[in-house]
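Sample log: Histidine--tRNA ligase, mitochondrial.
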Amino acid sequence: MGKEKSSFQLKVPKGTKDWEGKDMVIRDKIFASITDVFKRHGAVTIDTPVFELKEILSGKYGEDSKLIYDLADQGGELCSLRYDLTVPFARWLAMNSSIQNIKRYHIAKVYRRDQPAMTKGRMREFYQCDFDIAGTYDPMLPDAEIIRITCEIFQSLGWEGRYTIKINHRKILDGIFQVCGVPTDKLRAISSAVDKLDKSPWAEVRREMTEDKGLDAEVAERIGEYVTLKGGKELLERLLKDEKLSANESAKAGLADMDLLFTYLQTFDVLDKISFDMSLARGLDYYTGVIYEVVTEGSAPQTSEGQALQSAGKKESKPKKHASNIDGEEDRSNDPSVGVGSVAAGGRYDNLVSMFSGKQQIPCVGISFGVDRIFSITKQRLAADASAAAIRTNEVDVYVMAFGGKGFDGLLPQRMAVAKRLWDAGVKAEFSWKVKPKLPQQFKAAEVNGVPFAIILGDEELAAGKCKIKEMGLAEGHPEKDGVLIEMENLEAEVLKRIGRPAGVTDSLAEGVNGMSLEEAAKTEPKTS
């Protein structure tokens, strides 16, 4: 310390980033769009600790368990950073046995010790937005609403016609594996291999099954006849007529679920967004029924080089320095074989809660939206869209200015008083923090932040009980280019009228909180350790 020079490099850890400016604006709008849809469907929100007991997370994620961040033993409890929001939700349900049904959403950060590709939204610390329905209901109704919610969210984000929801059923997959002769102890391992078909060609997946996981080659070939299929209603009808699958109880049950689900999706007018994809397996161990994930044009590698590398097989698609080095420090943003991946995924998990409670079984179905991946694609689209509106970094409606001639004192008390009146009316307003600001600098400050209106104060106007309101950015020759005189007593009403907000509309949060006593709030407090 002191005289010795430090070699410490000031930076954020690999796979993380600081957020600011326009990126924060885009991300906040994504959060708002998703939350609006969640609330439209009657969801309530919860929050859980960012770290869980290690044993809570163990054994829930299949091969991906190696990506969990374990924390150092601080003396007492072994903990890990949460990998997703689903397992903590199931733990919460098991601890709160009085809750037998709930529509819940949760927006929070999760952590995975994966190889980052920052510009593609593949990070080690990232946000997930989860929506889950817990409770016993008639078959496929909650599942259908989850799909409908997914479509509403991507429509609200402006992705109409630019995404596909891949869907499958774990019972169908398990039935196919049984029919094809996969040993019971290899079901999850083979399922995990099949799940890689969106990233690797069938030849590579087949090699992994036979060489790495010891599956008989003939069994692998039979699996290939099914898992390379994809389509819509016609594929479902084809599978329903398959005598071998119909004779298998697991496949039969899964196909019946899908037939009913497709009927509901038709009613919800979202069936055209669906691709029945037999290669979709979802590697997480806790799924028991319908599974799905959302892909878009940014999900796969975006360059012809990347596509060529993928089709050439896994060994050629990834340089050795990336192959299995979980702790590798490489950022793979420029790796042409890496795409954004799925932007949302989920499914049914009927047995996860009972893993914690030991007795109580609460069926659940849900979906998780990867905000950072959605952000990555949205930002690319905005950059490519010349007609996209400029992104403002703040939401100020009015900039309060002052001007004057010789002897001008800056009218600071008057500017502060006007700002105070606007704030009281719920209007977002700013003024210069200089005692005697120059008018050009005030206009520049408003223009830089894209503030739509200015209130301009002058000695003569104030003496007459008036001020000017000016809409920024009007063309030369416009009759209101220089502003419009208004009565100071009507200031709030005039501003609210121009920014399109009814008078008297403010944040109702305070009213809601003031209407609840501390005793009432305490009654709703969930269980803790």
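Observation: The chain is about 40% helix and 15% strand.
Observation: The longest helix spans residues 21-40.
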